[in-house]
């Protein structure tokens, strides 16, 4: 796209906004993700191990860590630092993290792809499937145009939000050379974030390959992929000079697709994207050999995938299931993201995780929600254009017997796996962020503590837990792990569950307060790249990638145990999002997407253990009531 052409036209029609500060203004001067000192990493590691081990196991793990620190760990750490110094364009975690995702052979659906559900449009009539789809398509393309033209506001975390609105700040910052721009923002307590992941948001797909997948991004495609009843359609949403198709023309195409794709195909190709990656890689090769190369290219290079579902979810749990996995035939799970619109106009995103993290996807969701609700391109009573020339192409695939039976097998396996997974929404209305902040505690810490108490109440023990934390404040940062299980949360859980009548309210409150402070510290450390998980992960990756024997440290059962995350959690905050979640990361665990809102808190929880999940949510309610009573100064009964 040439900037000259689009800059002459009305902003509203082409961009979500035109930022004073260019999108990539800070990229060159972003700070680098630090590699913590090995000594600090191991100290943090041992602190996280302590609540999970008995005394003897802990002493053993401590000994192994000491040996690692003096031996293999010391050498690997030095080599990691040397490597990092040679790769100043990126972060030490970027390659190992891509490698982790792309080498994983489990199906992406349920195991990796999360979903985010968009809050309904406040005006009911705009939630019609065709109206919402058209408006969200157009806002998404405006986002793409803004990104391509360097008009998208860079992500900045403002320590003092007043600067986010300041013209003076923006005009000053944009004049700074890109080599120092980050420092200018830093001077006013503003922290620009890494924007590198956005280049794979659009026109991108994960391509299955034997043993390690690849990411593909097209330079300049103009077409959208639309799925309906398991059929694939493509049509250009950008014209030859990158103007967005008129809304009435877009809706005319969607109407055509809905009318044409009125039955399910005998063999729905998309089930293959739910398969184990090596199986899918082999079948994809067969598809290429059977003459489907052009069609696959059209899918891979499409700007994104729109799934026009024929599903009418009866409640939030059914909607969440639809967005996390659906019925498999109307998705292409390898696309960087799919925009799913149900028959009754609910909208959500399912995204492939290897290319990027929650921060980039949430930004996209926020912008398209805002733009599509404030400046909807299509009004509910608008008509589709009767004069539109439909340029839609239905992709017809050549499927030989072997491919057909592979689809059949994938279909059966997918149905089996999705049947085994339960997903439940939970909401607690007695307090939320405002109340917790008034108690001078951290809302996130309180939710995490509630999960710890809950698990202890249900199973009488503590287990490895994971909270995702973005490290996008650094160049090519990804995530770090916060470890919500600590000696403090263990003691607090024991006190609340087992000694509830023996302990005074003041004592319990003090324990909660200590947990909150400790969690806040862990959160801060993780966001600054000072956790322990990624550092250890990178050291292990370095040894393995060089073909060296795996150091004893990583063979310790305690190391393996702490990486079997029974409670895996992630949170995000946005008025544009009303549901969100992901599958459990282990067969005996829970996947918890949660949200602490102003006056309530809630989660979407998943598990392969249905009864345990129901009980977990019952206990969570109990635990939150306990916390509430304590904070209110009422003794526990
Ligand atoms: O940790 C990482 O590197 C990435 C993580 C991996 N994991 C999901 C396993 C933790 N990925 C993310 O954190 C991205 C997750 C994006 C979805 C988050 C969902 C948040 C839900 C909020 C809404 C809940 C509303 C409840 C309503 C009652």
Report on the architecture of this protein.
The protein is α+β, with helices and mostly antiparallel strands and 637 residues long. It has an eight-stranded mixed beta sheet, with helices on both faces. Helix 4 packs across helix 5 and helix 7 (129-148) packs across helix 10 (247-260). The radius of gyration is 25 Å and the shape is globular. (3R)-3-(hexadecanoylamino)-4-(trimethylammonio)butanoate is lined by residues 114, 116, 357-358, 425, 427, 468, 479, 568, 570-572, 577, 579-582, 585, 593-595, 602-604.
List the helices and strands and how they pair.
Elements (H helix, E strand, L loop, with lengths): L2 H5 L3 H4 L23 H12 L5 H16 L1 H15 L7 H10 L11 E4 L10 H20 L7 E3 L8 H9 L5 H7 L2 E3 L11 E4 L6 E4 L5 E6 L2 E6 L10 H14 L16 H13 L3 H9 L3 E4 L7 H9 L12 E5 L5 E5 L6 H17 L18 E2 L6 H20 L1 E7 L4 H6 L4 H17 L5 E6 L8 E4 L4 H12 L6 H23 L5 H13 L6 H4 L1 H6 L4 E5 L5 E5 L8 E7 L4 E7 L2 H22 L6
Parallel strand pairs: 6-8, 8-9, 13-15, 15-17
Antiparallel strand pairs: 1-10, 1-16, 2-3, 4-5, 6-7, 7-11, 9-10, 12-18, 13-14, 17-18
Helix pairs in contact: 3-4, 4-5, 5-20, 7-10, 7-14, 17-18, 17-19, 17-23, 18-19
The structure holds (3R)-3-(hexadecanoylamino)-4-(trimethylammonio)butanoate.
The site of (3R)-3-(hexadecanoylamino)-4-(trimethylammonio)butanoate has 24 residues, from β12, β15, β16, β17 and β18.
Keywords: Acyltransferase, Transferase
Family: Belongs to the carnitine/choline acetyltransferase family.
InterPro entries: Carn_acyl_trans, CAT-like_dom_sf, Cho/carn_acyl_trans, Cho/carn_acyl_trans_2
